[in-house]
Amino acid sequence: MPWLQIKVETPPDQAEQYEDLLLAAGCAAVTYQDAADQPIFEPDLGTTPLWNRTIVTGLFAAEHDVQETLNLLADAQQQLPVPAAGDYPSFKAEILEDKDWEREWMESYHPMQFGARLWVCPSWREAPDPNAVNMMLDPGLAFGTGTHPTTALCLEWLDSQALDEQLVVDYGCGSGILGIAALLLGAREVVAVDIDPQALTATRDNLERNRLSPQRLQTCLPPDTPSVQADTLVANILAGPLVQLAPTLAGLVRPGGRLLLSGLLAEQGDDVSAAYRQWFDMEPAVEKEGWIRLTGIKR
């Protein structure tokens, strides 16, 4: 079945009002989209900021009459405050062809190689190299599939390390991609920590998908983190939490142990590195597409 899609570009303070208009007109779903390539990397806790130019899109069943729906929206729009620019934004309509959306989504994911040994493969595709270290991982609700530069930076670093028989802490585990990669690359045991219970569930599901023993990976919320002395700790989160967590993360690493930090923009590297320097000999940052990876060895 084809669908009717109606879009309108609004200032952020009117996005919810236009969402209400689209819903009142009978749309089945509403999405927000950045209209000006303005990424929001690290919003304040408890906030959901929108872009300065936000596209609000309503998805309608095809039986909706295009012109009638546009006229209805234009009339309803007159009840909203007049924008500062002086003119109401215009609605744009287009027909979406009928597609097998699940298959379209699945086709967009493909096996990816990180470093010399490690591949991340969606479960519905065959591993390109059966003799490589192959992690089966499906995209899900928890962050971490290997497509983001910070995840790639972390996986490439893990692939380059000698992890045999190590205890690894994956702090902010998301999908579990880094901890599970460490196990596949030889680590003995992983402690996976996240503030989101759904991430812990995703991590356990991905562990099972890779046929690894549940005895080798412990999941926990931050207050329940065991007092371990890890050989390696990885934390791919955000700059603010990394600075705040510096004493906690440092305390989880043994002397001589290694630290990997990511989730950082290039301009955030100096501040985060400085927060860890009292415990670690920090190494130069490695950059990928404007994002960086920091590593260090605990004194």
Overall description:
With 299 residues, this protein is α/β, with parallel strands linked by helices. Helices cover 27% and strands 29% of the residues. The protein has two domains: 96 residues, Alpha-Beta Plaits (2-Layer Sandwich), CATH 3.30.70.120; 151 residues, 3-Layer(aba) Sandwich (Rossmann fold). The chain has nine helices and 15 strands. Helix 4 runs parallel beside helix 5. The chain is elongated, with a radius of gyration of 23 Å. The mean pLDDT is 87.
CATH class of the largest domain: Alpha Beta
Q: What's the pLDDT, averaged over the residues?
A: 87
Number of domains as seen in the coordinates: 2
Q: Alpha-carbon distance between the termini?
A: 63 Å
Shape: elongated
**What is the helix tally?**
9
CATH level 4 superfamily of the largest domain: Vaccinia Virus protein VP39
The helical percent reads 25-40%
Radius of gyration: 23 Å
Give the biggest beta sheet: 8 strands, mixed
Secondary structure: number of strands: 15
